[in-house]
Structure prediction request, 327 residues.
Amino acid sequence: MPTTYSHEFRAELLYDLCAALVKEGLGGPETWQKCEGSAQVFAQRAIMESIGEERWNLLQRNAEYHLNVSDVAERDGEDKLLGNGRLAVTIECTGCGFLKVGPAIAALEEESPGLGAAFYWTLTYALYRVMRIYNHDDALQYEERMHEYAEEEEANREQYEFPEAEKALPECIRKTLKSEDHRAFTLGARQLLMKHARGKFRGWIERLRAIQRLSRMRLPADAYFREDGGYDTIPLPSLLVAFKEHDAAVACFDEESQYMLEGSAEPTLGVVFSPQKHEEVRHALRVVGRFIALNYELFQLVEALAEWEKRHAGTCLDRGEPSFRAA
Prediction:
């Protein structure tokens, strides 16, 4: 007679997931032995092995991502079964990374007028395709809302503080904001970056081009989370982009971030799949793999810019303890 008995609710889905991971070359007999026969631990370890220790450590240093595979998804604030033998893989961000890009832009502009602006906008557009970031545009919108609130409460107008986000922008960025021919600017930015691809800052531009390539891969996530999830807010930012240590973007973010965790935020990434359908499993793995690969390139760039600033600019990079930023 057995002395112990264990039962996992809807365990068949978990074992289907483990089998699908093995078929895709993730995990094997040695991993199963290390997990002492636990399907849940096996699935977690197989996924972590696919990410790799180096990548995982880089992401841990710069952001707080949480990868989860589950048979439930949020609906109007409650977890509801996906049903039909489906699972959802999600990546959520609970602490965003930080990129101070001002010194790099200044150095690029000194190398060639317009190069800093080209670098900044190319990076911004690439990241927009894959994740939510918080930058000068969010600061401008926050300032506009503050002016609207102040107008509605004329008697208490003096209590409002306005960040003056546009004045905090580098001159080269401020000029491009007023550019009416966006297509011509984009083409000029591409040509300028290509011209300096083997120049003094080729390492930065190589990282940027890698991010750009990965962002253009057509791997759409599942629309289920956006249309039917019932989340209170859009995904939390994965990256705060500022020009200086305590500029307007940082100030606006620190104000807004106080309320970001009050509601239920949509996952940064979400894909629904059936572990019994090989093509759906491969699609989910490709989507997650692209996201991890892009973040790997992004945070290598973040650390490279920070290291360059320490060596050349001599400024302190201690950010203290701002709200909702990863350590």
About this structure: Residues 1-7, 315-323 have pLDDT under 50 and may be disordered. The first helix runs from residue 11 to 23.
